[in-house]
Design a protein that fits this description.
By secondary structure, this protein is an alpha+beta fold. The protein has one domain (about 15-115). It contains 4 helices and 4 strands; from the N terminus they run ββαββααα. The chain has helices at about 45-50, 70, 75-85, 105-115; strands spanning about 20-25, 40-45, 55-60, 65. The protein is globular.
Length: about 120
């Protein structure tokens, strides 16, 4: 899956493979959570953790949204540059259409992100 994204974070474009994960859009225990490329995103560890805890959401039009409470915090350069500045950014997608995130899965996950908080 990381190869589909050319070994970069879809959110921030970090290219250090050892700092990247294959993040599920729909968790592997949920219906639709199969381990296939369209159910995944290549993310650096900070963005993966933020995504898994619903501090970072991905809209069905591939825009990054950061949780409002997190946007309002002041906590140093990692929060500012690593998360807050990603708000509104478009994902970097795989070049092959079949490897791009499944829109139905993104919509499902986006709805869950909107219900948090």
């Amino acid at each position: 899956m990381l190869r589909a994204y050319e070994t970069l974070c879809a959110v921030c474009t970090l290219r250090h493979g050892r700092l990247l994960d294959a993040a599920h859009i729909i968790g592997d225990r949920a219906e639709g959570g199969e381990p296939v490329v369209p159910n995944g995103l290549s993310m650096c560890k900070i963005h993966h953790a933020a995504f898994d805890t619903n501090l970072l959401g991905i809209s069905p039009d591939y825009r990054v949204q950061i949780d409002g409470d997190l946007l309002a915090e002041t906590d140093g350069p990692m929060l500012l540059h690593g998360l807050q500045e990603m708000h509104g950014r478009l994902l970097t997608l795989p070049s092959r259409h079949r490897d791009q995130p499944d829109l139905a899965r993104l919509e499902q996950r986006w709805a869950a992100f909107g219900q948090v908080g």
